[in-house]
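Colleagues,

For the teaching module next term, I've prepared a clean inverse folding example: a structure given as tokens, and then the sequence designed for it. I'd like students to try predicting residues themselves before seeing the answer, so please don't circulate the second half yet.
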């Protein structure tokens, strides 16, 4: 989710063999689109590195440019545009790293230091982090494993089964760092969202004993790969995807919920509270 000049834009895994679509809204509930510059696609494979499997986009407005971090061919890539609707063009001519990785998230600390978090293919999918140079290249010596599958809720035996921690997103609250992440195979009905916290960007990270913070909300299943955004009223929200229905994974749906970090009594850490979710409505198609 990107709020830019009074308009909300949402990017997600859709049309994955062609690129990344974008939709827009004034109120978060009613959406128009797809409105991307290339037949509804903000990013089209003809313009960027990668030829298929375009997944997990995040868009950042930095230095008068829009940067899309996206996964393709199970690798990390970046594209750049002058407009949130695209067209996004290749930022460089190679993936960010040779090793298979997906779901990269950019976090910029208060001192301007850039960090990258991503799901790394090792023992299943693990979340790793690293410092970045100003050109978004990875400082290889800083590569650090952040978390891996460990809690019972992440070990669902409902098919399909996967050893998975993925979809990281980091927020800083006061002087602490909080990460939402997803556990279980994305197509499992028990795909869900957990919380971890640390005193520094590269850890040591500790998973919350209250996990999962989102799993099977109301009549939905497969709730994961969340991200935070602040709305026009200055309120924090969390957005994530769910399965299309109890029986069918695709095409997945989007849910948005108010979110808040609440101080735990007699502790230095905050808990994440997620409010009632709602499903945005597409009111027109291009």
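(Answer key — instructors only)
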């Amino acid at each position: 989710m990107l709020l830019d000049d009074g308009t909300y834009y949402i990017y997600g895994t859709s049309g994955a063999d062609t690129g990344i679509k974008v939709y827009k809204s004034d109120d978060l509930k009613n959406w128009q689109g797809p409105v991307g510059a290339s037949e509804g696609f903000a990013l089209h494979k003809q313009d960027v590195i990668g030829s298929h499997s375009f997944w997990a986009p995040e868009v950042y407005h930095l230095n008068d440019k829009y940067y899309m971090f996206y996964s393709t061919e199970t690798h990390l890539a970046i594209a750049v545009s002058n407009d949130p609707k695209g067209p996004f063009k290749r930022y460089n001519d190679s993936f960010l790293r040779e090793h298979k990785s997906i779901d990269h998230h950019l976090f910029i600390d208060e001192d301007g230091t850039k960090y990258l978090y991503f799901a790394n293919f090792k023992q299943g999918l693990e979340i790793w982090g690293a410092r970045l140079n100003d050109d978004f290249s990875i400082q290889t010596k800083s590569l650090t494993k952040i978390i891996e599958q460990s809690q019972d809720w992440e070990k669902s035996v409902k098919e399909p089964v996967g050893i998975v921690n993925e979809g990281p997103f980091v927020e800083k609250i006061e002087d602490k760092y909080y990460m939402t992440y997803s556990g279980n195979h994305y197509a499992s009905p028990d795909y869900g969202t957990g919380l971890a916290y640390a005193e520094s960007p590269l850890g040591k990270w500790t998973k919350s004993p209250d996990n999962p913070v989102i799993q099977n909300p109301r009549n939905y299943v497969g709730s994961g790969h969340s991200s935070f955004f602040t709305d026009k009223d200055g309120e924090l929200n969390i957005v994530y995807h769910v399965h299309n229905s109890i029986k069918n994974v695709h095409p997945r749906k989007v849910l948005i919920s108010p979110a808040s970090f609440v101080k735990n009594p007699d502790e230095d850490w905050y808990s994440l509270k997620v409010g009632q979710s709602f499903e945005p409505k597409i009111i027109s198609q291009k």
